[in-house]
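Appendix B, example 12.
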Amino acid sequence: MTLELSPDHAEVVSLLKPLDAGLELAMASLHARLESDAQLTHTLDIAYRIVDSPLGKLLLAATDRGIVRVAFEVEDHQSVLQLLANTVSPRILEAPARLDDAARELDEYFTGARKEFDLTLDFRLSRGFRLNVLRHLPRIPYGNTASYAQVAQAAGSPNAVRAVGTACATNPLPLIVPCHRVVKSDGSFGGYLGGSEAKRALLRLEAAA
């Protein structure tokens, strides 16, 4: 069925088109002003941005202490933001400039130009033994792997192999804190928050560098 507009309706539609474009620009300007005002008045507790990567879209979030969360698309970014609002602060705003360094370093990592991250991290989402595990993971050299048992030993609890698996599975800072370098004792990959194919791709990337 074809819908024909009367001359009056056609005129209204033609008037709305530039208004829609203008509204988009106005909203972008408003968002930029909100971001600036939030930083000036110290009412922004969590800044975030979405970046593209070979593994799909990644959510990056930071507090004034450092990067607090890196989330894969399969985790549902809206759910991750809601959890951050519940556990850290509801004062969250998309503020891409605050995460320029993180976005740049991740891009360098994915192109093989970076082997270590130089970012300040906020580990507040991990505690106890899990935090001990996460602090150890960057010591696993780029392009190498360690077993869950080896990480448990290095973290001070040789019998806590399953706990190491849990720490890796709940790592709030994947990629930057390289839990993908932890594999099973028999050499098989084991689980990964971003999915088994993502883990395989990361290990292949590092092995090829």
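Confidence is low (pLDDT under 50) at residues 1-16. The chain has seven helices and six strands.
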